[in-house]
Amino acid sequence: MFCIECGFYLPSVAPLGEEPTSNREGGTCSKRRRQDDGPPQSGRNSRALPRLQVLSSGRQIPFPPGRKVEIGRLDSVHGIFPDVDLTAEGGHEGGVSRRHCRICIDEGALFVEDLGSANGTRLNGERIRPHLRHPVNHSDELQLGSVKLRVLTRD
Prior knowledge:
Blueprint: E1 51-54, E2 60-62, E3 68-72, E4 84-85, E5 99-106, E6 109-114, E7 121-123, E8 126-127, E9 134-136, E10 141-144, E11 147-152
Parallel strand pairs: 3-4
Antiparallel strand pairs: 1-2, 1-11, 3-5, 5-6, 6-9, 7-8, 7-10, 10-11
């Protein structure tokens, strides 16, 4: 379930100490921006927020607004609520870690950073080094475990 206004993934349970992200009637999210999130991106790719396309299904997942987007699997028991949850895309079976990688937007440019995931992150087929930012361009392919995604930055 995603917010109809901003595309934020609305998990059914909010982390402890955080207010709920939606009302039961499906209203828009009221998630507070984290301090490390800046204003919505600006610069050369500011026309549209980036999206991830799941290659196996073709489904597109919009990025929530912000400068840092964490991708992984939801684990409400341990309080892990990634910005982009790949559980429904076969994330658990496909080897996606709970906190797998992060995509950062810096002056309109995109970067991916593996967060020390168990099965690694691949960018266009090449395994990237954990905890280092790697530039990502329109139509680049990310592989998290065995789940393949395409990064879309244009319409």
